[in-house]
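Practice problem: predict the structure.
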Amino acid sequence: MKKIVLLLLLSCSVSLYAQQFRYGVSIGFSKNSLVYDPSLYDEDGPVFSGFQYGLLFNQTFLKSELLGITAGFNLNYAESGLTSTNISGSNSDKEWTVRARYIEIPITLQARTPQLGKFVFYAEGGFAYGKCYRAMGDYWETKANGELEGDSDLDYFDRGSANSVEYLKTNYGLQFGFGTEFEISEGATLLIGAFMQRGATSVYSDNNDGSEVKLNQTGIRIAGLF
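Answer:
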C-alpha cells in the first residue's frame, strides 16, 4: 500500500511540472563510420551514408519549459564496412560491407532556452538502443595474384558467410544533439537539428580476441511536432 501511495504522489508531482506533450514525425540523414583497433583493420576505413525516419515524442517540464524529454521510434538504415589491406602484397586484401537495418529507440534529456520570438534552441543528451533485424552485405577478397573472390547479398547474421565476420543484433550508444525549433503556427513546430550517436558496444564480431568494432553516426534531423 505504501508503494502505491508513493507512486501516486510521484506521478502527481511530475504532472504538476509537466507542461506540453507533443508528437510528430522525423527524418534524418547520417554519415556512418566505425571505431576499432587500427592494428586489425585499415586505419582510414570507409564512411557510408545512411538515413532514418520515424516517430518523435516530446514532453516539456517547468513553467518556462526549460527542460524536456524526447523519445523516438525509428527505422534506421545504417550502412558500414571494414577493409584490410595487406601492405606487403604477400597476402590478400579484404573488404566487408554491411547494409544494416535497425529498429531504434533514442531517449534524451533536453535543455531548452526560453522562446525567443518564434524560436527555441536546445541541446540534448541521452542514449539509444537499436535492434538490428536485417544485415545483408558483400564480402570481397583480392588475392596476391590479383584473383577476386567473394559474393554479394550475404547474410551477416551467419558467421560463416563472410570470412568469420558476423554482424551483431543489438547496439547501444550515447546520443547527443543540438538544434532549434521554429513555430510555424499555433500548435505546430518545425524542428531542425544535428545529432551524434557514439557506439558503446560492438556491432561486429570476428575471430580476434577482445576485438570491438563500434558504430558512430553523425547527421541532421528534420521533424514536425504537433
